Amino acid sequence: MDIARRTLLAGTAAAASLATRPRPARAQTPTLKIGVLTDLSGPYKDLAGSMSTVCAQLAVAESGAAAGGIGVEVVQADHQNKADIGAEVARKWFDNDGVDIIIDVANSGVALAVSGVAREKNKVLLAGGPASSDLTGAKCNANTIHWVYDTWMLAHSTGSALVKSGGDSWYFITADYAFGKALQRDTTSFVAAAGGKVVGASTYPFPGTTDFSSYLVQAQASGAKVIGLANAGADTVNSIKQAREFGITQTLAGLLVFLSDVHSLGLQTAQGLAVSETFYWDLNDRTRAFSDRLHAKVADRRPTMVHAGAYSCVTHYLKVVAAMGVAQAKADGAATVARMKAMPTDDDCFGAGRIREDGRKIHPCYLFKVKQPSESKGPWDYYNLLATVPAEEAFRPLKDGNCPLIKT
User: Fold this and answer.
1) Alpha helices per DSSP H over 194-332
2) CA distance linking residue 125 with residue 336, whole number of Å
3) By CB count within 10 A, which of 54, 279, 384, 388 is most buried?
């Protein structure tokens, strides 16, 4: 009985001792957080919007991050096309919510503001949606990569091609914010270099303008051969529709036209437009493979180049994180961007490419002509390829950007 009692007491003491010892901490899965900052409700919601989030999620799923023990969370927010709101969301994400990188940002004014926040907080901005070439020019920094296209590329491709084909006098209808101004500026330089001239321009309040009739009448009265539309998304769609309704016969230059815009216009209205893109879902076997995988998740749409950019930039980012380690990537955004520049890019959307020292992602640019209705074989079959601009020629030369990262 005494032996049994002593055994019981010893067991109780041992249990008490075990209960007070700290339990070993469970291994925490390192987690990355990706913020998709985009236009969820305004004129750019179709060319970017929630489908950019789906593309980012697809990139995560296909990256093998989970198999490598890396957790990745994707969140989204609406910047409402307002720079102050975009910057406020970025600060909250970086300071309070554990977001490591921001992608998309389909608005140049918002992107320039968020780029400054990313630099201040030493985080990462992978800008796939905005166009202003200033992001890799005078406003460049070590925490930002400009991924898909820019105003220099658009002006060089579409603007130069139209002047060479006889469109040597231009009138611009321009969205009154960073993107529209940069697009008009860059296109004007190419028009002048090719021997053309700009005879006038009208700027309109952005966002919120839906009636372009007065601007179109002014453009028509100018006698310009080309009306340059320095806008995008729903604004471009409305401008083209209203120009057709008014019977305007001058050439319409949609300087930034997306596949989603052509879909909204319909081929009857959009046929014949020359457009510059860096991605088209039906371009080659790899773009079709990506688009088919995405189509399984979003069956009623095909991706724009902004959507392709969301997939592409997240794919490359996760490759770099796997190589450098999650802790280091989370701790130092500039170091992560430097590693992204050092590693060649390759994905199903843009093929092989690279990221320059100024943060400009390099890949080919394509000039397309919108098909006539009789040429289309089905939904979203909208483009004929006219020309390909090689990657090293598609974007502004490094020496001409005045990026402070480039030491001359």
Assistant:
1) 213-222, 234-245, 259-265, 267-270, 285-295, 305-324, 326-331
2) 11
3) 279
In a domain, 54, yes or no: yes
Q: Do 249 and 389 reside in the same domain of the chain?
A: yes
- Tally of domains in the chain: 2
User: Is residue 18 situated within a structural domain?
Assistant: no
Residue type, 328: Q
Q: For 178-237, what is each residue's pLDDT tens digit?
A: 999 999 999 999 999 999 999 999 999 999 999 999 999 999 999 999 999 999 999 999
Total residues belonging to the chain = 408
For 48-71, how does the pLDDT look when each residue is reduced to its tens digit (9 = 90+)? 999 999 999 999 999 999 888 899
What average pLDDT does this structure show over 308-337? Answer: 97
144 and 293 assigned to the same domain: yes
The arrangement of strands across the sheet holding 383-389 comes to 274-277, 365-370, 383-389
Is there a cis peptide before residue 207, judged by omega within 30 degrees of 0? yes
Same-domain status, 161 and 255: yes
126/101 Cα distance (integer angstroms) = 7
Structural domain boundaries, residue 274: 152-278+365-394
Alpha helices (H) along 30-106: 50-63, 83-95
Are 174 and 135 in the same domain? no
Token couple for 128? 């796939």
Crossing angle of helices 305-324 and 285-295, in 10° steps, is 90
Percent of the chain beyond pLDDT 90?
89
Give pLDDT, residue 220. 97
* Nearest alpha-carbon partner for 187 in 215, 206, 163: 163
Q: Strand, coil or helix: what is 170?
A: strand
Q: Which amino acid is at 363?
A: H
In a shared domain, residues 170 and 228: yes
Inter-CA distances, 375 with 27, 268, 272, 372, 381, Å: 58, 11, 11, 5, 9
Q: Which two tokens stand for residue 408?
A: 């001359």
Q: Are 21 and 38 in contact (CB under 8 A)?
A: no
Helix (H) or strand (E) holding 252: strand 251-254
- Which 8-state DSSP code applies to residue 253? E
